[in-house]
């Protein structure tokens, strides 16, 4: 895992790639993340390499949490 040092903390997940509301239970979610907004993160990542990312989404009104773990391969132009 690549440490992001809080760079992505406190983002509104519904406005940044996650389909809301997230329903309870195991499911497949399509998540769109645009890391071009974070060029420093892209510079740390090697091309044609697999990475794992874990995101914790918190419903601020209830405190309920959803943890999403995904694996992807990075391809840079």
Automatic annotation (TrEMBL):
It comes from the Eukaryota. This is MD-2-related lipid-recognition domain-containing protein. PANTHER family: ML DOMAIN-CONTAINING PROTEIN, PROTEIN CBG22129. It comes from Acrobeloides nanus.
């Amino acid at each position: 895992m690549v440490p992001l040092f809080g760079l992505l903390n406190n983002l509104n997940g519904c406005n940044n790639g996650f389909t809301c509301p997230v329903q309870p239970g195991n499911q497949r979610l399509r998540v769109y993340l645009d890391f071009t907004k974070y060029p420093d993160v892209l510079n740390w990542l090697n091309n044609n390499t697999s990475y794992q990312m874990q995101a914790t989404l918190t419903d601020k009104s209830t405190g309920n949490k959803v943890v999403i773990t995904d694996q992807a391969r990075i391809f840079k132009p």
